[in-house]
Amino acid sequence: MPSRRRALLKVIILGDSGYVNKKFSNQYKATIGADFLTKEVQFEDRLFTLQIWDTAGQERFQSLGVAFYRGADCCVLVYDVNVMKSFDNLNNWREEFLIQASPSDPENFPFVVIGNKIDVDGGNSRVVSEKKARAWCASKGNIPYFETSAKEGTNVEDAFQVIAKNALKSGEEEEIYLPDTVDVASSSQQRSTGCEC
Amino acid sequence: MEETALYPPIEPSNFDLIVIGTGLPESIIASAASAAGKTVLHLDPNPFYGSHFASLPLNDLVSFLQSQSQSQSQSQFESQPSQTSDDYASTPLVTRPLYSALEFNSYSSDPIDSSRKFNLDMAGPRVFLCSDSMINLILKTEINQYMEFKSVDACFLSDAEGKLENVPDSRSAIFKNRSLSLPEKNQLMKFFKLVQGHFGSESEEDKISEQDLESPFVEFLTKMGLSQKLKSIILYTIVLADYDQGNLKVCKDVIDTKSGINRLALYHSSIGRFSNANGAIIYPIYGQGELPQAFCRRAAVKGCIYVLRMPIVAVLMDKDGGAYKGVKLGSGQELFSSQLILAPHLTIPSTLAPAEQVTTCHDVRLSDTKEKVARGICIAKNSVNPEVANCLVFFPPRSLYPEQITSVRVLQLSGNVAVCPSGMFVTYLSAICDTAVEGKKLLSAAMDALFCMPISGNSGNSETDNLCELTEGKPCLLWSTLYIQELTTFQGAFHSINYTPMPDEHLHYNNLLDATEKLFQEIYPNEDFFPTISVSDDLQDDGGSEQDP
Description:
Chain B: It holds the Pfam family GDI. The structure holds 2 protein chains of 2 kinds. By secondary structure, chain A is of the alpha/beta class.
């Protein structure tokens, strides 16, 4: 399956503890207890699987390992519009990502920024304005920006579309995956069920 | 240590288990304990995961080895069991050196200049057999979704000149092999069938007799009429014997027929298990250091708390009974747990040890083994065999020089497993030995057989650098290191404190995994070592169940 990696995009979600784990990604939890969410996205007539990695709490003491960052096709930076510090830390997370993942073209690596929890307290507790967030995104090479509410998942679909599009454009690290990665999971499945998946 | 000060205090302060060090055994136990519902805190003083099982950039590997090869100055913590919180005696932890005789050779600045493009295994060479117990655990715990693997394309047997011969390890490899005679091919094919019959057949006639099963494997092979060469192939490339099986005086691990054919069967069941693995052996992209990280992530998902860059300075003991209570961190915080697991380089000085020595619950492990492992890493621009990128090379006993009593095993990897920049090759070597001198002699002989050394002092001039490649037809070394690693075992230090071992001398993880599971069962006799996940769990989206603060 030479095109496996292309169809499967690794997306990692970074941000201050508490805003990342529970809120944004929970909306797309495919299986209970999995840290590892998948989301199908249709883009230009092809179906892609976004493999969304959350930090599993390892960000709390800045203890994410390099394996978490490796081979990411897109990095989603999430902050809470009601907490200034989470916005201030976006830059640290972005830099941490670039150091750890060391993508071959850091200038053009696809990031997406999401301002989360805009619905809390009817928007009254908001401390980071959309304008401010957009200005920061513009200054970092026009990072696409979205705002979502934890409850309703507003704009999440749009965000995923952009994530897929940008991740595909970058094609990061593709050469090492092609064409002969050993697929232990599906092979073992084949063996036990005897079905071609 | 400035960084630790930035961390918020760790909460809660009581755990079922505290684990120090993120080597593979520690990570597996943290993961298994978390899966069993225990509260686990997992700490590592290093800024990276994996401890002695890590894969590191070149410069980081060098500094880690250097830092672990000398006794850490204790002056910083030279205060004795004393002044701490009220009821506990604080016993400072010291670091013991587990690497020695380090040697680094740099013939070109290219590798160091791209240091970060390397992921060098500290405990290489090491691979997976597709059907081995570690791959089964990887699949069972589903951490295969965090890792990717590539095939190791070929296995070779080498002589002292570095002439490589394909190992006929399967039926199709026997068929294709050009160095075996026709009678040898028949012998080997017959033998493989015999072993297959032993495992596959119901009939007693096809079984190998009890008497044979208990005899040394080498004798059984002789009895079956296999030539010297075929015996060597089976014993050292498939069964992976360490010591010369033909010389019982020096052989410390005589392999009996029973375990010999078990390993052969494991090897053969590994071939073809995964559709796009060429042979029996695979290797993880980005290096073996991915494995402890994957187990740690699994543990984190189950609630284990992770703190890197956090030194532990002391163990807290009960003042009266001397029982283990907790640990004191570099940040000054004191944390408590029922059980403590320590990486092998940490020790509690025995003079300061409280009275209660372990005598009851642990038997085997009171002293470390005398043998050591010599390890080497070579970086070159060309492959030891132009036709393959990733391969194993075996130097059986007596192949390098007459007094060679242990095997030298070699694993070459290319940029396609992301362990080095493309256009370079990383080669790991290892051998078990009694002394550093012997170990270095073994590895140096193997390196001489496989590589040529550039003329020194010409590192700027690529034409002279490559001269040796042209004249000798061997890849030219760009950089190399040799080091001697101590072997340690699982040990109970005191009641409730256990040490994990250093990476062992093997090419695989089987022994290490068995011992890790055993330790887990000793600590938690009533828990499953990774219970099978029931698929019938609720698959519903749980997004709605979250609570807003």
